[in-house]
């Protein structure tokens, strides 16, 4: 079996996939396609992804693009514990949280942590975009915590993809002075403590 | 069983869900939340979706947001034929195509058909945005047709979610003078003919 992950450790979505790979105990190679240096837009990466995005995964010659597709595929074909919830309601909670994160969460969180940590990457420091980002980040995190309810993880009793979606972006937010504002959502603190304690979170901290 | 679909027939994503409901032979109620009239941003809809989007589905009191989550959930819990491919590779092709459509396809296609059909909805007619939209629409459709390969549908021998994602936006593109440009992609014409012939496509044409 050959498994190659294209994407650099600074990308939150790459870390999402790596958390799953660690949870599965998978062997894989990684090619560090550096987003900050513009490497995803080099011809060799555009041949892998027509819009120059990471992560991309190659599994025995089968190429998978887009994080949600990669997560479902790898969870299914790799041995190790399943990260897919075991009933239809929890699977829907997982998908819903992933969808809300993709549609509204990632962009909002990036506009906050990018402001402080990678301003060039997001086209410079824009105070208005940061403020809107804080509001929308809270709105998404609030919705995800509503989906979680009283369970330990977003889609139930065990970690699933949606937890691995949210955690890497929260790790960047935690490095900024806006963390207290963004994280002031009911239920978040306990979830965040639980996520940071996961071995797959610890093993994927970007260098 | 009670099943309510919130969202108006003009929305391509609402039609995506309706195509699945028709394929499943499901009974459902629909609340026409009109995007063009701004109804998704009324408090009663914001209580259903914090970012004021459609579709939203309520199934026996369980609320599902985001089209990918709705599709997977309904396909699983409703009787009728399965719209989920029966092997891991085809499931990955389906998810990949949905991800590419969500991330790059929808916005590109809307900027083309919106220009001609709903200019107010997309903030007015912008020639540059239309031209970029044509390029990006073709790039996404080309990638989806590569995923399809020689199969009749995007993820294999039978229709799956990804076909129902792409078709409703193509129906709007077909009404514009840019159709010939956008649709000039290898393999598209046969796929599009096949999709338009589906009873679920016919039954969901917006009035």
TrEMBL record, chains A, B:
Give the UniProt entry's GO cellular component terms.
Answer: cytoplasm
Q: Which lineage do the record's taxonomy fields give for this organism?
A: Bacteria, Pseudomonadati, Pseudomonadota, Gammaproteobacteria, Pseudomonadales
UniProt source species: Pseudomonas frederiksbergensis
Annotated keywords: Transferase
Protein name per the record: Glutathione S-transferase
Q: What residue stretches are annotated with the GST N-terminal domain?
A: 1-82
Name the Pfam families on file: GST_N
PANTHER family, alphabetized: GLUTATHIONE S-TRANSFERASE OMEGA, PTHR43968
Domain GST C-terminal as annotated: residue spans = 87-207
Q: Which GO terms describe its molecular function?
A: transferase activity
Q: Out of the domains of life, which is the source?
A: Bacteria
